[in-house]
Amino acid sequence: MYANDVKMSWEEVIEGTRDFLSTEFEVDRSEIRPENSLKDTLDLDSLDYVDLVVLIEENLGIKLSGEDFREIVTFGDFYQLVRKKLAL
Amino acid sequence: MGQRVVITGIGIYSCLGANLEEVTKSLYAGKSGIVFDQIRKDFGFRSALTGMVPEPDLKSFLSRRQRVGMHQPAIYAYMATKEALEYAGLDIDFLEKTETGIIYGNDSTAASVVEAIDKAKEKHDTMLIGSGAIFQNMNSTVNMNLSTIFKLKGINFTLSAACASGSHSIGMGYLMISQGLQDRVICGGAQEINAASMAAFDGLGTFSVRESEPARASRPFDRDRDGLIPSGGAATVILESYETAMERGAPILGELIGYGFSSNGDHISNPSIDGQKRSLQMALKQAGIAREEVDYINAHATSTPVGDGSEARAIFDVFGEKVPVSSTKSMTGHECWMAGASEIVYSLLMMQNSFIAPNINFENPDEDSARINIISETKEQKIDCFLSNSFGFGGTNSTLIIKKV
Asked: Where is the Carrier domain (chain A) (predicted)?
């Protein structure tokens, strides 16, 4: 279900995002915290960013590009980017 | 030739079982792996018959990054290769420090291509296909994935030769080692099992439609056969120089002593007795043995009248009427790109356990099959030397001869 399709609270978006990231990248959900590094926690290589774009599109209904990730270091940064795109 | 080439490991993932032990039992029991697949009927197939394997879950073996580029051919090949490496006593630590190659047979990745293109059409954005598709879609998917997973440092390519792919991959590995270019090569064949990969083949009308009796449908050499049945999985055969194998105390299952090959240079799908005979004769000549020394022939025979008939005639012309012959495709169906490798594994299991697996469903011979010695029931027999035939579209022929060491 896309976040844009239904009225989801910001907290629901974050919790849902933690769910699909931990499932797909096979990391402990508790490791996905705002202060932690997105790249290191999810163990992302250059190819994984493509899958991250796919996951976000599938789960949140928003399209990010590779360039969007340039300024992203932590999950906190990432959440802000998602928030901006979702206009929440 | 130069270096002697031996087999130090085998692994199998087929419709007869998920490992060597299960497959040995099925071969001995003459068990069929053919099923009716409703998905194919719904798709519009003329025949819904196929060999079937379970889809293995690799999560406990491989990381997400290692898995995303794998679709059926690579997944099945991983299962077979994992078993073969364990058999041969080769671990990743050893492989990383030495030079081991991979030449694997594969000739399609249809389902993964269809999935990727469907996704692109739906999303109108190629990035949303995902990062794994390219590594699933290329025909070299097996060697790309396995060389990465197992840290292989030697020769690394896929061999595509239709239904002789698996056999030629072993032949090429043999040449690499006998010429002294490699000490060890992982060979084999993989075949995806899905509607996308076999739809066009089904469209030729060459598959059996004996849908009410799946286990009786594949009947190589039998007068009442009505076509082949597609199948799949993967089989791995590890080749090694005799010297290296002895040095590391590896198990030696047999020695590859002859690799014959030929091209018909004629029709794209019809077989040629002349082409098959040239392949058989080349393998015999290279092996330097008399035809009487071959204790068993694992036939290519797929259960089509034209193919079986020409092979029966070629075998009769070269070997006469005495040598025992069976087609394990009577149980497995036609494992296509994988068949040349899986049938080496099946024959090695027979050699190890001193029996000839039956050509099940051989009830009535026709004019050609009546002239050769087809084994229709499991036979206890010592095998010191066997020959395996593989023939493919485009008139590509391959023959391998293996003997006990």
From this structure: 8-86
